[in-house]
Amino acid sequence: MTILLPGDAMVALVGIAGSGKSTFAQAHFAPTEILSSDEFRGQSASEDAFALLHAALRLRLRRGRLTVVDATNVEEWGRRQLLDIAGQERRAAVAIVLDLPVEVCLERLGGRGARPVPPHAVRRQHRELHGSLPTLGAEGFRTVYVIESAAEADAARIERAPRGSAGHNAMSRRNRARRDDARSSNRHRNA
Ligand code: UTP
Ligand code: MG
């Protein structure tokens, strides 16, 4: 599977605990591009973690920096917050869903002592994910990629649309002009 991403996209990983979101993110993206809910939880009170993640996401998108949100994102209200930020910063939102069998995820989690997630919570996440899958596009994701096995996750290739192109969907002339203005004033900064 080739995953095509606009160079300034908000990329939401979606998947239950143990589905391989962090592994996938680390394989395909630079560390600075990944905002992980676990890392924010590690450095702040749990109730502040998502506020910090959202603030970092907004500032990165404002500068046109592709940003990957590594969190379960199986609940609609959580995704809504990410989509609102992407929309306000006029960036395309792309979902990459890791929809692996729940038994595979539970087995993987069994071997991980660091942050145990009870099996009933993992199964609840799985029901939430499957309830959401048919309508992810309608929520506002421009493209939804669904990966269903570890082999597919390993074989996935990420292709970034060149900066200055709108990806494979047309962007309105007005948004393109706004974005290009933002770009030219930031051209000398690093990604
Ligand atoms: P991850 O830790 O990547 O899952 O993989 P996750 O989706 O980010 O989980 P949460 O939501 O943060 O809890 C879970 C386990 O599965 C292994 C990883 O090494 C890790 O121990 N794994 C992941 C594989 O064995 N194969 C894979 O293709 C991906
Ligand atoms: Mg993880």
Bound compounds, each kind once, are: uridine 5'-triphosphate, magnesium ion
Give the structural class: alpha/beta
Number of helices: 9
Order of helices and strands: EEHEHHEHEHHHEHEH
CATH architecture descriptor name: 3-Layer(aba) Sandwich
Radius of gyration: 17 Å
Instruction: Enter the CATH topology name.
Output: Rossmann fold
CATH class: Alpha Beta
**Low confidence ranges:** 167-191
- Approximate helicity band: 40-55%
Task: Report the span from N to C terminus.
Answer: 26 Å
Strand order, biggest sheet? 3-4-2-5-6
CATH superfamily: P-loop containing nucleotide triphosphate hydrolases
How many domains make up the 3D coordinates? 1
Quote the average pLDDT.
88
Largest sheet: 5 strands, parallel
Strand content: 15-25%
Principal-axis shape = globular
Describe this entry's structure for a reader.
- The chain has a single domain, classed as P-loop containing nucleotide triphosphate hydrolases (Rossmann fold, 3-Layer(aba) Sandwich), CATH 3.40.50.300.
- The protein has 9 helices and 7 strands, in the order ββαβααβαβαααβαβα.
- It has helices spanning 21-28, 37-43, 46-62, 76-88, 102-110, 119-132, 136-139, 150-155, 173-186, and strands at 2-5, 10-14, 34-36, 67-70, 93-98, 143-147, 157-160.
- Strands 3-4-2-5-6 form a 5-stranded parallel β-sheet, sandwiched between helices. A two-stranded parallel ribbon has the order 1-7.
- The radius of gyration is 17 Å and the shape is globular.
- The structure holds uridine 5'-triphosphate and magnesium ion.
- Uridine 5'-triphosphate is lined by residues 15, 17-23, 38, 72, 108, 112, 150, 153.
